[in-house]
Write a structure and sequence with these properties.
four-stranded antiparallel sheet
Length: 810
């Protein structure tokens, strides 16, 4: 009696075999070409979801396929284990982030193993372990030596009730996510990485990342935001200082009628000090600090400001320009100061109207002049007017000549500017890598000596969610002797942004137990050669920050001497998979539309969950969840199982038509996998099954073995079991991918499907290229077709050449 398909017994069996035999253990060297396949590693939240299943199934198919194609495959896994959710859980559940994280890692390990993913588990890492972040601290120290890590005052989101700094994602419509208090902008000393030093290289290299989606490259280019313009100094009346601005429109310099500083700009309060405006400027800065930062990035709010009490001078005209603190200028953009040209900038126009500031036109449209007064700002290029010797020049020509003039006069210079800002890595939270810096009253800022690394995160911490960083309250951590003078000093209590850990983890996988450096240079040089990670897979939501930071960090590691000079980009090819959608929304716990993978595994098996997630949609598109689709994937696997079970005692001959189907399917699946078109590859397997099922006899051993091999990347447990049922003692995972014979694809005969009123009544072998009339005549001769035509007449014939003929009868 044949065994029914039982994934609950089949799947654990092969997972144990893979583990015991170390089937997917990777090692450097050998004659095979290397292939590094990597999915963005998970945050250990406690349970995997269908987004994980889809992402990791995509990567696993690629890794398994490449292994069968003869590549030496590295396919690792680890945990992005620091971060805010663990700390929030500690506060809410009165537990410790370390305990919460360890429990979640254990839980998710079990789930991922149940999915049958071909990971090299011996390379598993967790970024919250000291043996990982000690090397991150070393890189920080080397960056500090080079001036690539530095500290400066910057504005942060501050909740006055919780007395803590909030990340941007913890601010909801200007309020604290926990207590609903109004969030303020408060200046704090923060650590930064100087990513702007690499802005041009990061931008230029986007033109060489041929394996990346153009959409992602466009997003990165826009984030870096290169613009050509000029820096111009506007002297402050009665002072030796000048306000430095950057403008992409030097052709409008003659139309400047006032200056605007960000309300939080230190210069705003400094200029007003001792003037009647000092109180007004301070109150305005406090008011602006409470504005929703996201709202300040939009244009749908009233443009407000306050006069600082001083004026600047237009260096070209000598005119006095009142200096305002304004709510529409942001400190982190440009220099935090702008020259205001209300005739040619809409925000300046609205502000000038509100405050009665002159509006002076210096650009006319080509071949026309403006109506007076202006109804709105004219922001396009045109012809200069009221611009002294530059009057009459077109904008583009005027830009160049005005910049040359101000350079000659020492008023400014031509420059490139970037929207990209240095990466603020300070986090006033506990669950992160400590920043290895000590502050000494005598010696100042002192790096922790390399021999004292890692600076370990203490575990004896109380969590309240209030009062700033918990680390600052641990005397045994804070109080330390200065490494230089041995006098009492204080440790830095900020921790690093978790994006730092994820910016180099792919390199640590090359040698995760190496204890002399962040990674073994030889091992990493092997896995990263020829362009870096061969295939990287993850969500489009990481298209900018994670990928940009990883690119930056890779370049820094090269320049610091840790990484081979030939590796300046981390990811050769990038696949951004779509989201999993259910009930019209992205699957998430908050929306209550989550499908638990454990439920699918228990009811259908991991192979069904994998197959459905790969078949339901192309990988780059969103996947609409469909319960019927899961059932359909399960039924298909059961049918395949039954076909093999019924054939193993009596394999049929390997006929010509069967060979054509086999070679055709191998070719189709191979080409689709090379293009990552998993859904069409699975569709080809379903078509292959139908052809083998409809032979009218048992398929040949060769056809069923090829089926097991082609199926195994998608449903690896069943692939192994079928391979063993077919008498093979090796692992299908280690078998050589089947080849196809082009000559066998030359079709002299085809299988013609005959339908009567849309229902299949026969499958006939027919000469290739048969015309409609000949196909109709052949169909009418079949006994079974005759039976369904008895007493009826053919009203219409639908013919699909070399595939199908449908006889529509009345």
């Amino acid at each position: 009696m044949k065994e029914p398909y039982d994934p609950q017994s089949v799947e654990p069996k092969w997972q144990k075999v893979w583990e015991d035999q170390k089937t997917f253990r990777a090692s450097e060297g050998g004659s095979k070409p290397k292939y590094y396949c990597l999915e963005m590693f998970p945050y250990p939240s406690g349970r995997i979801h269908m987004g994980h299943v889809r992402n990791y199934s995509i990567g696993d198919v690629i890794a398994r396929y490449k292994k069968m194609r003869g590549f030496n495959v590295l396919h690792p896994i680890g945990w992005d284990a620091f971060g805010m959710p663990a700390e929030n859980a500690a506060i809410e559940n009165k537990t410790h982030p370390a305990k919460w994280t360890d429990q979640n890692i254990s839980s998710m390990q079990v789930q991922l193993r149940k999915m049958g993913f071909s990971y090299d588990w011996e390379r598993e890492i967790a970024t919250c372990r000291p043996e990982y972040y000690r090397w991150e601290q070393l890189v920080f120290l080397k960056m500090y030596e080079r001036g690539l890590a530095y500290k400066k005052r910057s504005f942060v989101n501050w909740c006055p009730k919780c007395e803590t700094v909030l990340a941007n994602e913890q601010v909801e419509q200007g309020r604290c996510w926990r207590c609903d208090s109004t969030v303020e902008q408060r200046p704090l000393d923060q650590w930064f990485f100087k990513i702007t030093a690499y802005a041009q290289e990061l931008l230029d290299e986007t033109n060489h990342l041929k394996g990346w989606p153009e959409r992602v490259l466009t997003m990165q280019r826009e984030w870096i935001g290169e613009s050509e313009g000029a820096e111009v100094d506007f002297p402050i009346e009665g002072k030796k200082q000048a306000i430095k601005i950057f403008t992409t429109r030097p052709d409008t310099l003659y139309g400047t009628t006032f200056m605007s500083l960000a309300a939080e700009h230190p210069l705003a309060l400094e200029l007003s000090r001792g003037t009647p405006q000092e109180k007004a400027v301070r109150e305005f800065a406090e008011k602006t600090a409470k504005m929703d930062r996201a709202k300040r990035l939009t244009d749908d709010y009233e443009k407000e400001g306050v006069f600082t009490g001083v004026s600047a001078m237009n260096p070209l005209t000598g005119k006095k320009l009142p200096v305002y603190a304004a709510n529409f200028v942001l400190m982190e953009y440009g220099t935090g100061a702008v020259m205001a040209v209300p005739a040619h900038d809409q925000r300046d126009f609205e502000f000038a109207k509100n405050y009665g500031i002159p509006i002076e036109v210096v650009i006319d449209p080509v071949g026309a002049v403006h109506e007076r007064p202006l109804q709105k700002a004219f922001e396009d290029a045109g012809v200069l007017v009221n611009s002294q010797q530059f009057t009459g020049l077109p904008s583009e020509e005027a830009k160049k000549k005005i910049v040359a003039y101000i350079e000659k006069k020492g008023m400014g210079r031509k420059t490139l500017n970037y929207k990209l800002r240095d990466w603020g890595i300070s986090r006033q939270r506990y669950w992160g890598a400590p920043i290895p810096i000590v502050y000494c009253d005598a010696c100042g800022t002192v790096p922790v000596p390399e021999k004292d690394l890692p600076v370990k995160l203490p575990l004896d911490v109380e969590f309240t969610g209030k009062g700033g960083s918990p680390l600052a309250k641990i005397a045994s951590f804070v109080n330390v002797n200065c490494p230089k003078c041995a006098k009492p000093a204080r440790r830095e209590t900020d921790t690093m942004d978790t994006f730092v850990e994820s910016s180099w983890y792919f390199l640590r996988y090359g040698s995760p137990r190496f204890d002399k450096a962040p990674f073994d240079p030889k091992a990493v040089a092997y896995w990263m050669k020829d362009g870096g990670v061969d295939q990287y897979i993850g969500g489009i939501e990481h298209a900018v920050l994670h990928l940009l930071y990883s690119r930056f960090f890779t370049k820094v590691l090269v320049d610091l001497g840790f990484l081979d000079a030939g590796v300046r980009e981390p990811f050769k090819n990038l696949l951004t998979q779509g989201m999993v959608i259910k009930d019209g929304a992205k699957m998430s716990k908050s929306k209550g539309n989550v499908v638990d993978p454990n439920y699918l595994i228990e009811r259908y098996g991991a192979d069904t969950a994998r197959l459905f997630s790969l078949f339901a949609s192309p990988p780059e598109k969103d996947l609409d969840w469909n319960d019927q689709g899961v059932e359909g994937a399960y039924r298909f696997l059961k049918r395949v199982w039954t076909l093999v079970q019924e054939s193993i005692d009596s394999f049929g001959p390997d006929g010509e038509e069967e060979k054509r189907w086999r070679n055709r399917t191998v070719k189709k699946v191979t080409e689709d996998l090379d293009r990552f078109q998993f859904n069409t590859a699975i569709a080809a397997l379903m078509e292959y099954y139908n052809a083998l099922h409809d032979l009218g006899r048992s398929p040949s051993r060769a056809s069923l073995e090829s089926f097991a091999q082609l199926l195994s990347p998608f449903a690896p447990h069943m692939g192994e079991e079928l391979w063993r049922l077919l008498g093979r003692q090796d692992l299908v995972s280690l078998s050589r991918w089947p080849a196809f014979d082009e000559s066998a694809l030359k079709v002299e005969t085809i299988l013609l499907v005959v339908q009567v009123n849309g229902t299949v009544r026969a499958r006939l072998e027919a000469p290739a290229g048969l015309g409609q009339d000949a196909a109709r005549d052949l169909a009418l001769k079949d006994e079974n077709v005759k039976r369904f035509l008895e007493g009826k007449s053919v009203a219409k014939v639908i013919h699909v050449p070399n595939k199908l003929i449908n006889l529509v009868v009345s």
